[in-house]
Amino acid sequence: MRKKFLAAALLVTTTLSAAASAKPTVVIGYENNGADPWMVSQAQGLFQKMLPANVELKFFDSGPAAMSALASNALQFMCGLGVPPFVAAVSQGVPLGIIYNQERYTSAAGLIVRPGSGIKTLADLRGKKIAIVEGSQSSFELATFLQQAHIPFDAVHQLNMSPPEMRVAWTTKSINAAIVWDPVFDALHSLGGVVLKTDADLPPDASSYNICIADTTWAKAHPALVTDFIRALNAGVTYTKTHREQAIALMAKQAGITESIAKTELAGYQIFSAKDQTKPSVLGTTKTVATSATTKTLENTGKVLLKIGRIDKLPPDAAAAVLPQYAAAVH
After folding, report:
1. Verdict on whether the full-model pTM lies above 0.90
2. Domains within the chain, CATH numbers bracketed
3. SS3 state at 314
4. Mind listing the pLDDT tens digit for each residue in 41-66?
């Protein structure tokens, strides 16, 4: 009997192991952008529950830091990514596509200046030390804001650092200003920072978005998994809209901030659902994608990055990098 029991147990273990190994491994990269619905999906384990795969989550402190992982096929998805690093990767021929536009920054990101820095207007930025994440959305924002003030891009001292490093540099007075996003943007504000510009000052067709992207080669081979991924992401959006207080509590815990701060940060986003994705103001449809706000933002961001020397050439076809069909299959 003992031998039969052991044989049966071994058979069950072997079967379970085979089933687990048969599942594809899906690695999802993400950034901590403060309180947004991604955090709800993550906190509730929705990606693991809704994707028939072995799901792994991997944190990155900025978009550029995730680019090498994406280029080496180590990630299938990346969320919380800004548009500039995506444009830079696509311009180099990396096969990536936007499958979900998570949100547009309004008051949750921007240009913030340190008290006593002598900066009261954009014109005062000339010659100042400004912290940015090179190649990220902050490069695009800085170039746009300086252009508005007719200040050359190289007329300011740009210091490349991660958002957590900006917080340290702020307290040591090593920088005069920073262009960053929540939760560090909000943290610097709480330390007395004066907000000079927010991303609400950027037009929708040249705006600051958090996007979810996928390896397009992998996505074509696994369309059902891409749709399941979007369904899990969208479930966090739905929960945020229907259970706001509970969602804020989950976001706060995941982002490592207080619920009060999470509430403020969430108010600084224009959140998009799966249904919103096919609107012209987001991804559009397969027929309207070429003129959608997301595609136009890719084009306009590329022009700025090319002008300031962040990329050597424009992406050949911005619309081809915007993929609304997966979100369209969710509803």
Report:
1. no
2. 26-106+206-328 (3.40.190.10), 109-204 (3.40.190.10)
3. coil
4. 999 999 999 999 999 999 998 777 78
